């Protein structure tokens, strides 16, 4: 590649990088506000999911052990 194409590709890659990470930062910022606003519900739901998964693992382990 010629030096001109090398610079052009570098500029395009930097522009894409800046666009991607700026968009990602804005999305994360919006998501963090939503998560902070609904943190209690998220904690309850995730706790229930982990409790169910733990119960399933315990039952499967007991079946395998005593099966």
Number of domains: 1
Helical content stands at: over 70%
The helix count comes to 2
Order of helices and strands: HH
Class derived from helix and strand content? mainly alpha
Main beta sheet: strand number and arrangement? none
Question: How would the global form be characterised?
Answer: elongated
> What is the average per-residue confidence, as pLDDT, rounded to a whole number?
95
Share of residues in strands = under 5%
Keywords: Membrane, Transmembrane, Transmembrane helix
Transmembrane segments: 6-28, 40-59
Protein name: Threonine efflux protein
Properties at a glance:
single chain; 2 helices; 67 residues; transmembrane; mainly alpha; transmembrane helix; membrane; Threonine efflux protein
Would you summarize the structure shown here?
Helix content is 94%, strand content 0%.
Please tell me about this protein's structure.
The structure is a single chain. Helix content is 94%, strand content 0%. The chain has 67 residues and is an all-alpha fold. It has one domain (3-66). It is elongated, with a radius of gyration of 24 Å. The chain crosses the membrane at residues 6-28, 40-59. Keywords: Membrane, Transmembrane, Transmembrane helix. This is Threonine efflux protein.
């Amino acid at each position: 590649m010629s030096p001109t194409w090398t610079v052009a590709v570098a500029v395009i890659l930097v522009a894409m990088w800046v666009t991607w990470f700026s968009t990602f930062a804005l999305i994360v910022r919006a998501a963090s506000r939503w998560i902070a606003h609904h943190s209690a519900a998220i904690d309850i739901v995730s706790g229930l999911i982990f409790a169910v998964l733990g119960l399933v693992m315990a039952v499967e382990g007991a079946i395998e052990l005593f099966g």
